[in-house]
């Protein structure tokens, strides 16, 4: 096993000025910029951070992004197909970065850039210590849904199995990245693709609703259901209220 797989870089994807034509409530560039900076400063305490950004914002001219520690700023071209939605653009960014990065990390933890996972140290430890799985990502069989907001993957596996998948996605037709990922990974060997064992405790503003992610009794119930489902069925039975 390559020893470099025991270390993980965090990749944050970002769009400061929203360039999707779909309805989006959380659009204020100044607010989004602030949230990305907060996320980068938080995560860079734990691992090297690559920040990928694909809007018309002049990122490379913003001094607050140029003086961040343990961080690599990567400006990605604006998508030519914004109408296809957020999943299309996010994975288009990832593909572009891996195809142009001269020294890509061997393993990455990809996080939607404004989201703060409070227990990131636990998550990173799991990613580093799991030398068997090429991909850690939460899948839900009953809803045919795979969660793209956070996943840990070796760059080799990503390039072999996931690269190019975004080209199938189009939010206008309902073929979201969550569904495309689920279909792609459905027949993957359970040892190669595994679920996170730790809960994913996230705080953020949801882009489409503009509302804070819930942190109430429903979250606790949903987490307990997810834990029980994982124990009963390695294919990840799922229920959410």
Class computed from helices, strands and strand pairing: alpha/beta
Strand and helix order: EHEHEHEEHEEEEHHEEH
Q: For the record, what CATH class applies?
A: Alpha Beta
CATH architecture level-2 label: Alpha-Beta Complex
CATH fold description:
Spore Coat Polysaccharide Biosynthesis Protein SpsA, Chain A
Shape: globular
- Main-sheet strand order equals 3-2-1-4-9-6-10
Strand content: 15-25%
Uncertain residue segments: 207-211, 234-241
Could you tell me how far the N terminus lies from the C terminus, measured between alpha carbons in angstroms?
41 Å
Overview of this structure, please?
The chain has helices at 29-43, 63-66, 86-100, 120-129, 155-162, 177-185, 217-232; strands spanning 9-14, 49-53, 71-75, 107-112, 116-117, 135-136, 139-140, 145-146, 150-154, 193-194, 202-203. Helices cover 32% and strands 16% of the residues. With 241 residues, the chain is of the alpha/beta class. It is globular and about 45 Å long. Residues 207-211 and 234-241 have low confidence and may be disordered. The protein contains seven helices and eleven strands. Strand 2 (49-53), helix 2 and strand 3 (71-75) form a beta-alpha-beta unit. It has a single domain, classed as Spore Coat Polysaccharide Biosynthesis Protein SpsA, Chain A, CATH 3.90.550. The strands form three sheets. The chain has a seven-stranded mixed beta sheet with strand order 3-2-1-4-9-6-10, with helices on both faces. A two-stranded antiparallel sheet has the order 5-11. A two-stranded antiparallel ribbon has the order 7-8.
